[in-house]
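Question:
Now give any protein.
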Amino acid sequence: MRYAYSAKVSRDSKGLTVTFRDVPEAITQVEPGQDFAVIAAYALASGLSFYVDDGRPLPRPSRLRAGERLVALPLLEAAKLALHEAIIEGRVSNVALARKLGISEGAVRRLKDVTHRSHIGQVEAALAALGKRLTLATLEAA
């Protein structure tokens, strides 16, 4: 899956308000001088973390509409979301994945936590244990 979602951007006196129709939990304000891509991606990751925390499937990204901007998640956050989806798809518990990886259940919870800094290699290993392979694509910057 591509971890990039359509963002509606509205301008007001405080800066930009960013919302995501596919992830209503994600909303943020970007003030003048702030990096839009960083702030919007952080809000998106935070919104998607509610799905991970609740063990729910992630919403599928809709097509970009006129006037919207595409917000992509950074590699680590996208990898963690891929892990979440692989866990749901495989119906694997945190304990079962921990056994496969030889780590604690708490370490698996941290690997799934979108806001926790993990090593990408650990997430890649967890995906491999679930029969998945992490790949990378390079796109032109927006």
About this structure: The chain has two domains: 4-72, 75-129. The beta strands are 4-12, 15-19, 27-30, 69-72. The chain has a mean pLDDT of 93.
